[in-house]
Each structure stands twice: as C-alpha cells, then as structure tokens.
Amino acid sequence: MFQEAHVKLDLDETASVLDVVNEMVEGSLFDPLETTILAVDLPFYEGWRFLDIADHATSPPLQRYVFQKEDGFIMLDWSYRPIYVVNELAPVKIDEETVLDYVRFFFSHVRGKHGRFILCESLENVNWKEEPPVTARKSFADFIKPMEILEMREDGVFKIDARMLLKDALFKVNVYVEPSGRVTLTDHEVLIEDMPVLDHVFAQ
After folding, report:
1. C-alpha dihedral over 76, 79, 81, 82, to 10 degrees?
2. Does residue 143 contact residue 186 with C-beta atoms inside 8 Å?
3. pLDDT above 80 (res 3)
4. Alpha helices, H only, 22-115
C-alpha cells in the first residue's frame, strides 16, 4: 500500500463501508468481523480518502482498494481508469509538493499489459528472490536513486527522472505528469537486466 499515515476504522464504520463495497465485488464477500480497513487522506485529493480493505482470514486473502467521498465509492481495478475518474471528480491537485507522492501512488495501484512498473528509489523497493551479496547490493545501489523533478513546463506538466523495475530489468525513465493527473513514460533506458528479483506481475 502507498505509505502514508493511516487510520484503522472501527467495527461500526467497517460494517457500514462493507455494506456498500460487498455489493461492488464479485465472488467472496468481506466479513466485517474479519476485515481490517485502513483509511488514508491523500494530499492530492481533497475531500476523498483511500481505503485499503483486507480480510486475511480467507484463503487466499481478500483485498480491495477503494476511493471514498462521503457515501460515494470508486473501486480500483489495477487499470488507470478509476484513478483518472477521481482525478476529474476531486479534482486532482498536482504541484511541486504533491506530484512525487502522486506518481508513487499511481504506480503502486496500476498494472500495464506486461506487468507492474515498480518505482525503485532505494534498494528497499526491490523484492529479491534471495538476498544478494554485499558487493552485488552496492553495485545495484549505484543505479538506483530517488525520483527527481527535472522540469515544470509553462503548461503545468512535470518532467520527472525515475528508476523502475519491469520484471527483472531496471530502467531509467522520464515520467510526465499533466495537471489532469495523466501519466506517461518516455525515454526508456535499460540499466540492468536479469536482476535476481521476484516476478512483480501479480505483486500487490
């Protein structure tokens, strides 16, 4: 989940939320007594909160991510579409203080047709198959760095330098974020291939 300060909902509010969410999901339903809901206020969506809904008592665990504003709910489906819907409704606030957090959130909850792009701002973002030797870690660390805003254009578009993992390859890439919240990637440059990492296609 996107790392921001969160609040755990009490049982009454959990049950109230699940009354609505259970009507939106297919298959297994959430049990209020077994479900934990963590609520996050995101800095780029005023008046909306983001809910991480999880029931780990089921096998496999049942988890959904949902936007909420008062009695309105929008469920994420790992595509960019629900995020772009909320971007219009909120509307999204993209500025120098929020744009990097927005990018982190976006790529935490969107999958492409080839899998997920995993932002790598430190070695802590890498999901290793097995811990590499110290010398190898230092070598990988030389290619990883935090995101950096390179430019804010007159039309409000941000250009950001980022490092991303796709499957077992680490890329240098430019991320463009429009004032509407639309995200595009350009200028891919492969830095390392065949990294000893787990497949992120189905990573949560």
Report:
1. 10
2. no
3. no
4. 81-89, 99-108
Whether residue 179 has a cis bond before it, omega within 30° of 0:
no
Residue 15: strand, helix, or coil: helix
Count CA within 13 A, CB hemisphere, residue 31.
Answer: 7
Within 8 A by CB and 6+ apart from 115, the residues are 166, 167, 199, 200, 201
Residues 6+ apart with CB under 8 A from 26: none
Output the pLDDT for position 204: 43
Cα separation, 184 vs 186, whole angstroms: 7
Query: What is the separation, in whole angstroms, between the first and last Cα of the chain?
Result: 8
The domains of the chain are located at 6-75, 99-192
Burial bucket for residue 47 (CB in 10 Å: 0-12, 13-18, 19+): exposed
Q: What is the mean pLDDT of residues 15-39?
A: 94
Contact (CB, 8 A) for 40 and 4: yes
Query: At 173, which helix (H) or strand (E)?
Result: strand 169-177
Q: How many CB atoms lie within 10 A of CB 128?
A: 14
Per DSSP, the three-state class of 116 is coil
- Measured CA to CA in angstroms, residue 61 lies from 23, 35, 36, 155 at distances of 18, 10, 12, 44
